[in-house]
Amino acid sequence: MPLTGVEPARMNRKKGDKGFESPRPYKLTHQVVCINNINFQRKSVVGFVELTIFPTVANLNRIKLNSKQCRIYRVRINDLEAAFIYNDPTLEVCHSESKQRNLNYFSNAYAAAVSAVDPDAGNGELCIKVPSELWKHVDELKVLKIHINFSLDQPKGGLHFVVPSVEGSMAERGAHVFSCGYQNSTRFWFPCVDSYSELCTWKLEFTVDAAMVAVSNGDLVETVYTHDMR
User: Fold this and answer.
1) Domain 22-89+125-206 in CATH: superfamily?
2) 104 Cβ partners below 8 Å, 6+ apart?
3) Which of 46, 48, 89, 202 is 20 to 30 A distant from 71 in Cα terms?
């Protein structure tokens, strides 16, 4: 799983510096990515992620993550329903009522929109409200597990579908879907902290047709059949 995010130059530090200090009020330690349905006809996927985080401040009441193109259906924190707001300012860089019509204005507006969701500024497109039932839990800096159900339909980037227009099954036609690790592209196909500075362990789960195979870096833990034996 290639982790994508900010340029390494942002993490450069001078001699004598104490080191990189995360702008996020939590530490991500583990992430599960489960893609349990891949539809080549619709060029869509359905799945969920589970992020394990440790609060680093006692008053953590909102958690910001990165996510683009995904439709978020449900968010739970420690099995409690959590309210969330999704806002991607890069979808409308210049408001329609703006009278400015020049490249310099657009460049400045785009830079501001990107900064507003920059994970290394503590920002993100997805803002999750921590349920009040967990505030005491957070004050004690105890672990939180964030479960997010999502889907992705005809992505424009991040995840790429290749479906040759020939006869036969999808496997016979050589249909496949892939991702590649260019900057800030992970958020394009599942919710995450899209930054090189937030290292963690990963578990990847893919459900594919029996005639196909999932390829990834890391160690293969197990292969199991689904209930329909496919």
Assistant:
1) tricorn interacting facor f3 domain (2.60.40.1730)
2) none
3) 202
Mean pLDDT along residues 27-40: 97
Alpha-helical (H) ranges within the chain are: 103-115, 135-139
Domain ranges of the chain: 22-89+125-206
With beta carbons less than 8 A apart as the criterion, state whether 1 and 189 touch. Answer: no
pLDDT for residue 65: 98
Verdict on whether the full-model pTM lies above 0.70:
yes
User: Has residue 173 got a pLDDT over 60?
Assistant: yes
Angle at CA of residue 107, ends 106 and 113, nearest 5°: 85
Per-residue confidence (pLDDT) for residue 5, from 0 to 100? 34
- What Å distances lie between residue 96 and 92, 93, 102, 191, CA to CA? 9, 9, 14, 29
